[in-house]
Amino acid sequence: MSSPTLTKDEDARPATPGPAEGPAPERPDTTPTALSRFLGNPKAVVLVCAVLVVVVSALVSGSGAWPGALTADVKSPLNDLDDWLVDNRDTHWLFLYFLLHFSNAAESSVDSITSLFDSMGWIGVTVIGTLIAWAGGGADLSRRALRTGATGLAVFLICGILGVWEPTMETLALMVVAVVCAAVLGFLLGLASGLSDRFERILRPVFDTMQVMPAFAFLLPLVLLFNIGTPSALIATVIYASPPIARLTALGLRSADPAALEASASLGASGWQQLVTAKLPLARKQMMLGLNQTIMMCLSMVVLASLIGGGGLGDEIYQALGALKIGEALVAGVAVVLLAVLLDRTTAAAGERLDDVVKAGLTKTMARLRRAVWGLIAVLIALFAAIGSAIGEGEWPDGWTVDFTNPIDTAVNWLTDHIGSGIPVLGGTITWAEGFTESVLNPLRSGLLATPWWALALLVAVIGWIVGTWRAALTGVICLALVGWMSLWDVAMDTLSQVLAGLVLTVILGVVVGILCARIDRVERIMRPVLDTMQTMPQFVYLIPVIALVGQNRTGGILAAVIYAAPAVIRITAQGLRQVDPAAMEAATSLGATGRQQLFGVQLPLARKSILVALNQGVVLVLSMVVIAGLIGGGALGYMVVQGLSKGNLSQGFPAGIAIVCLGIMLDRLSQPSKGRVRD
Amino acid sequence: MNPNRIRNTAFAGVGIVSVLALATGCGAADTKAGGDDKVVLAEPSWVGATANAAVVKKLLEDEMDVKVEAKQMDEPVAFDALNSGKADAILEDWHGVPKKQKKYVEDKKTVVSGGDLGVVGHIGWFVPKYWADKHPDVVKDYKKLNKYYKDFKTSESGDKGHFIGAAPSYSQHDKGLIKNLGMKFKHIPSGAEAAQLKELKRLYDAKKPFLTYWWEPQWMNEQIDMVEVKLPKYTKGCEVPESKAKCGYETNQLEKFMNKDFANSDSDAAKFIKNFKWSTKDQNKVAGMIAGKKMDPEDAAAAWIKDNKSTWEKWIPKKK
Amino acid sequence: MSEAPEATDAPKSAERAESTASAGTEPVFSVRNLWKVFGPKASKIPGDTSLTGLSATELRERTGCTAAVRDVSFDVEKREVFVVMGLSGSGKSTLVRCLTRLIEPTAGKVDFNGEDVVGMDKDALRDLRRHRASMVFQNFGLLPHRSVIDNVAYGLEIQGMGKAERRERAAEMVDKVGLQGLGERRPGQLSGGQQQRVGLARALAVDPQVLLFDEPFSALDPLIRRDMQEEVIRLHREEGRTMIFITHDLSEALRLGDRIALMRDGAIVQLGTPEEIVANPADDYVRDFVRDVPREQVISVRRAMRPLDASEAADATGGATLAPDTLVSEAIEAVARSGESCRVVENGRTIGIVDHASLLTVVAGINREGESDGGGDKAKEVAAV
Predict the structure, then answer these.
(1) Where is this region: Disordered (chain A) (predicted)?
(2) What is the least distance, in Å, from the CA of C88 to any CA of chain A?
(3) Which of A511, A568, B180, C335 is the most exposed place for a label (fewest CB within 10 A)?
(4) How far apart (Å, rounded) are the C-alpha atoms in residues A592 and B64?
C-alpha cells in the first residue's frame, strides 16, 4: 500500500506545475472496474482527496512557507549553551568528575591497544589475527575454520601490501575498544529490556529512533562534549553500534523456548539461575547475530568518525580526498572492505559453529583443544608484545608494498572523463544530471515549497493513517511540525525533495536488479561480491568521483545515495522473491504460466511484503546518504550539519541534525505498514 | 562456545571494564591528555597546512629528536584544542574564527601568537583565465559580473548565476556580500575543499565559465590559471556581521598560534616553531609535490629540506 | 445407582480414601474450590455469585474474562496415579500448573501434605519445586545446549549439588529410563521418545514425592507413546510414587489412572475410577467421550452382574465362579467356556450372577434404565461443589 501511495504522492506534484519527465510510476487505471473498485475503498478515496487538496492548494497559494508566528528562536539558547560548554569544558564538575573520565579512558584504552599492536609488530598481529579468525571458525581442520583462518591471513597481508598497514592498525585498535564497549553496553541494555517490561517500554522507542537516525546527525553534540578526537569518535561509535546487540539480546531473552523456561521454573530455579542456565544460553544465537551487526556498524562508524578526529583508515580516506587522490582513498577503502569481510566472516562462522555445538555437542578432546588454542593465543599475544619488535619491524616493511594508487587514479580519471561528457549522442552523465536536476529535482522542490504546510501535514497524516495507524499519522505530523517550529521548513523541504527523488531511483533500480538476481543465478553470482563491496565501502570514497561524473550538486548526492542504498533494496527484494512459496510457483508453472506471468502474477504479489521492507530500508539509507552528500554540494540540512561540525557551531548544526532525525522518523513511519500495525 | 569459554569471555569483559574504571580513577579527571614529551600540531585540512606540518615534523624529528604528532583539525576546533592543551601549536591560521581568537587570546590568554608564518594568504572571487581573457572588463569591476550572469547559470542556481562558495570551515562572507552588492548570483556552498577542487577541475577542463571563492597559496594554482575579480576594498571590521558585509577580503599575514604553556616552556621545540617562517613560494613547492605529484607528505618535506638547507637552518635554536 | 460418587471425593477410592483416612495419612494434594481466571479484574470473578454460574461464553461476553479453572476440588492420595483428562482448552494444563503455582491460582486452596501452597513464600515454594514435586512437559522443555546428562542433572544443579555428584546421579537416572550410552548426546540428536525419557529422568533425578505429567506423550508417535506409557506403569509399580497425569487421550487415561477427573470448560464433570466413568457416564458429554471405549476391558463383573433372585442362595456352591473385580472380557470367556452363568463370589459369598445377557448388555453399552440419568445428575452436582 505504501509503495503506490508514496510514488503517487510525488508523481502527482511535479505533474501539475511542470512536465514530469522523471521515472513515472504506474498511474491508477481508469477502466470502469478499476474505478468502482477504487470507489469501494474508502482509504484510497481519502488519499486521493488529500492529494487533490495538496495540489490545488499548492497551485492557489504558490508559497507554502511555515508561518513565522509558529517558529521559535532555537538559536540563542543553543548559542548560550555552546558558549557555556566552551567556557566550562575544563572547569565544571560535570566534565571534571564525569565526562572527562570517559574521554580520558577512551583515549588511553585506544592508545594502549595501538601500542600493543605496535609492539607486537606486523608479524605478531598477522599471526594472532589469523589464529583468532581460525579459532572463531572452530579451531580445527574443517573447511570453515580453515577458510576463516585463510581469510584472516589474506586480509592482513593484503592490507600490508597495499601500504595501509599503519592506518589499518589504528582503525583496528579503535574497533577493538569500540566493539568491546558497544557489546558490553548493548548487552546490558538488552538484558535490561529483555528482562524488564518497563525498560523495554523505555528503550524500544529509543532504539527505533536510533535505527533511523543518520549517523552523521549525532556527531556534533559529541564533539561539543568531548572535543574533536578519539574520544568523540569512540563514543559516537559505541552509541551508534550498540542498539543491534541490545535489540537482539532482548529478543533472544524474550523469545527463549517457553517450555524450557517453564521446566526450569518448575525445578525451582531462582530468577538468576534461570537467567544464567537457561535464558542467556538460549539467547546466544541471537546475541551472536547482534554482535555481528554491531561489529559491522562499528566499522562503518569508525570510518565516518574520521570527520571528528577518529584517525585510521577513515582519516586516510578523508585526507587523500582532500588532495583529490582518488587512488589512495580507494586503496584505503579497499582495506576497510577487507576488514569488513574478515570480521563478518569470522563472526558468522563463530555463529554457525555455535549452532553446531548446540546441535551435536562437543567431544571432550575438541573442547580441550579449543581451550588450548585460546590459551595459546593469549600466550602469543604476551610473547609478541614482549619480543615482537625483535623478530621484525613494528611496521610493515616499506619495500613490500605495491603502489596501486597511480593506475587507479588514471583509470578513474579516464572513466570519469569519458562517461562525464564524452559519449556521443547520449551526452554523458553531466548532461543527464543537469536534466535530472531541472526536470525532477527542481520541480519537486518547488512543488514542496509551494505546498502550504497544512496541506503537506494533511497528506502526511493521511498516508500515515493509511499505511499504519493513527499513531503513525500523529508521529509524522509532529515531526513535520517540529521541523517547521525550528524555522527549518524550507531547508528541510529541499532535503525531502532529494530524498524522495533518490528513493524512487533506488527502489526502481533495486527492484529491477533484485528481480534479475532472483531469476537468473548468474546475475546473482556476479552481483553478490559487488553488493558486498558497495555496502561496506566507506561512502567518502565515491563522493569525489561522483563530482567528476555529475558535478558538485544535488544530483551528485542523490547518485551517491543510490549507490549506497541500492544494495540493501536489491538484497531484500531478491530474497523476498526467492522465498515465494514454491507450491504457488509450481501451481503457476503447471497452469502453463510464462516467466513473465509468473513474475507479475505470483512472485511480485507474494513478495510484496519484502518489497515494502526494502522500501523502508531504502528510505532510511537514502536519507542518511543524502545528508552526507552535504559534503559534495547536496546543500540543505546535510550542509548545515557539515558546517556545524566543522565550525563546532551548535546552534547551526544541532537543529539541522534534529530536523534530519525528524524527517527520518516521519519517512520511516510512513513506509512501515506491518510493523506499525503489529505494534498497536 | 562452551560454558567455560563464556565464563572466560565474561571474565575478560569484566577485566576490560575494570581496567577502564581503574584508568579513569576517581576524583577529577586530567584535562590534558597525551604524553608531554610529544609536540602536537593542529593540522587544518588544506594542503598548505599539510606542507607546513610535514616540514616542521620532519625537521623536529630528524634534526632535534623531538617527537611530533600532527592531528587533523580545522581552525575552530584547533583553537579549542590549543586552549585545552590538546594541541600545542597551529602553524597556519587564516583568522577565520575571530570570535574564538578573541576569547582565547585576548580574554582567557590561554593561547598566544607564535608570530607570522611568512606566507601571505589572499582570498577573493576568481574566474578562469580563459573566460577573463574574453571579458576583460569584469576583472577590474565586480559589477560587470551582473552583465554576464547568464553565462554562469546552472541547474542548481535557477535563473541566477552560480557562485561556487567555500567549504564550510573556511573564512567567508560571500553570502552576505552577494546580497549586499546586489549580485545576480546564487551562493552555492561547497561541502568540502576536495569537492570544490574537483568541481573546479572539472569545469576548467571543460573550459566552462565559473565564478568561485578562491585563495592563494593553493597548490592547484599550478594546474589551473585563475584571475581575480576586484571587490570593494577591505577595511577592518567591514565584514562583520556577515549580513552587512560589503567588502572583499583582507590580505592576510598568516599567523601561528601556540598554547601558552607550550610557548612559555622555553623548550627547543617551542623556539623552533616560533622561528619557523617561510615564503608562499616555498610552501607551494611542497604542497604541489604533495597534491599535484601525489607524493607522500613526508617525502615531499624531505625533498624540500634537502634543497633548502639555508632556509631552515635559521629556524633551529642555537645550542646553549 | 448405588455407587455414584457421593462426596467431593470419588469412589473406587471411597473405600481407599476411607482406609487411608483412617490410617491417618493425609492426601498428598488437596485442592478445594480452585479458580484460575484470566482477564481484567480476574480476582473479582470467583467471589461473585452472579458470575460463577455463567457458562464460559457468557462469562467472556459479560466480563471479558476466561475461567480456565473453575471451582475445582479433589484430593490426590499417596501412591495414586491421578489422571486429569479433557479436550484442549478444558483447563487441565492450567490446573496442574496451579498446583505448584507455575500459574498463580485466582482463588481457592491448594494443600500439599497439609501445607498451604497458596500461602507459601518464595523460598518455601522454591523448595517445594526443587525437592518435592517435579514436572514432565509436553514439549520436553530440554535445554538444547546441554548434553543429556547435564539436562538430567539440571534440577540437581539448581538445588546446588556439586558437579561430580549430580552427574553421577544423573547417569543413574539416564540408565533407569533406558537411555544407556546416550548421556553425552545433545537433545537435538535424540528422537522425540528419547527426549521425553530425558524429561522424565530430569524429573526423577530430584527424587520428588509427586511427579506431575503435563500431556507428556501427546507429541509422540502412537507406538512410542505406548512404550512410554509402559515405562510410566513400570516406574509406578517399582517406586509407587504419586503421580498426577494430564492427558487428552482417553485410552491413556484409562490405562494409567487409578482415578480420572474429567474436565470440561474448566470444571470437573466427573471424577471416578475408569470403570465408573465408562460404565456410568455422568452426562451426555462424558457418554459421548467414552462411547468408543471397549467397555468389556474396563468394566468389572461387579457392575455387570445381576443380583441374586429369590431362587438363588447366597451361599450356594458349584458351577463356575468369578471374583467381582474380574473384567467383563475375561468373564465372557469364562461364561462361554462354562456354557452357562457364573456366580460372582466375594469373601465366600455369592453376591451376584453373570450370564450371557448381562455381559452382552455391557458390551453393547446399554445402560439399565433410570440409573444413568440419576447418577449423572448426582455426579454433576458433586463435581460442581
Answers:
(1) 1-33
(2) 17
(3) B180
(4) 84
Determine the distance in angstroms separating the CA of B153 from the nearest CA of chain A, rounded to an integer.
Answer: 11
A-chain residue closest to C188, CA distance: A359
Distance (Å) from the C-alpha of residue B291 to the closest C-alpha of chain A? 5
Q: Name every chain A residue with its beta carbon within 8 A of the beta carbon of B24.
A: 101-102, 104-105
> How many beta-carbon pairs under 8 angstroms link A with C?
87
Give CATH for domain A87-392. Answer: 1.10.3720.10
Which among C131, C147, C186 is the nearest to A359, CB-wise?
Answer: C186
Q: Chain A residue closest to C143 (CA)?
A: A260
Which domains does chain B show, CATH number per domain?
38-120+253-313 (3.40.190.10), 121-251 (3.40.190.100)
Q: Please check whether residue B287 is in contact with residue B48, taking contact to mean a CB–CB distance below 8 angstroms.
A: yes
* Closest residue of chain C to A270, computed from CA coordinates: C126
Q: What is the DSSP string of A399-466?
A: GG----HHHHHHHHHHHHHHHHH-BTTTB-HHHHHHHHIIIIIHHHHHHHHHS-HHHHHHHHHHHHHH
For chain C, the 3-state helix, strand and coil shares in percent, each to the nearest 5, are 45, 20, 35
Pick the CATH number of C12-294 from 1.25.40.10, 3.30.70.2740, 3.40.50.300, 1.10.150.120: 3.40.50.300
Closest Cα of chain A to C384: distance in Å? 29
In which element (H, E) is residue A635 found? none
C-alpha cell at C326: 474380574
Give the pLDDT confidence of C95-154 residue by residue, as tens digits. 999 988 888 888 888 998 888 888 888 888 888 888 888 899 888 888 888 889 989 999
Say if residues A616 and A672 touch (Cβ distance below 8 Å). yes
Tell me how far apart the alpha carbons of residues A593 and A612 are, in angstroms, rounded to a whole number: 25
Across the range A471-496, mean pLDDT stands at 83
Whether C141 sits inside 8 A of A257 (CB atoms) is yes
Nearest alpha-carbon partner for A186 in A170, A167, A162, A206 = A206
Write the CA distances from C281 to A216, C219, C256, C288, C376, integer angstroms. Answer: 74, 28, 19, 9, 6
Do B31 and A553 lie within an 8 Å CB cutoff? no
Which residue in the set B8, B24, B154 is minimally distant from A105, CB to CB?
B24
The strand pair at C133-136 and B161-164 is best described as unpaired
Fold for the domain defined by A2-60+419-679:
MetI-like fold (1.10.3720)
- Whether C208 contacts chain A with CB within 8 A: no
Give the domain ranges of chain C: 12-294, 296-366
Q: Name the phi and psi angles at C279, rounded to 5.
A: -75, -30
Domain chopping of chain A, boundaries: 2-60+419-679, 87-392
Given this chain, do its domains A2-60+419-679 and A87-392 carry the same CATH topology? Answer: yes
Q: What is the pLDDT along chain B (320 residues), one digit of tens a residue?
A: 444 444 454 554 555 555 445 444 445 555 544 445 688 888 887 788 888 888 888 888 888 888 888 887 777 778 888 887 878 888 888 877 777 788 888 888 888 888 888 888 888 888 888 888 888 887 777 777 788 888 888 877 778 888 888 888 777 888 888 888 888 888 888 887 778 888 888 888 888 888 899 888 887 887 888 888 888 888 877 777 777 878 888 888 888 898 888 888 878 888 888 888 888 888 888 888 887 777 888 888 888 888 888 888 888 887 65
**Beta bridge partners of residue B39, listed in sequence order:** B68
Comparing CB atoms, the residue among B25, B34, B72 nearest residue A309 is: B72
What is the C-alpha to C-alpha distance for residues A188 and A246, in angstroms, rounded to an integer? 7
CATH of domain C296-366: 3.90.1280.20
Strand C242-247 and strand C259-264: the pairing is unpaired
Give the tens place of pLDDT for each residue, B129-162: 888 888 888 777 777 778 888 888 887 777 888 8
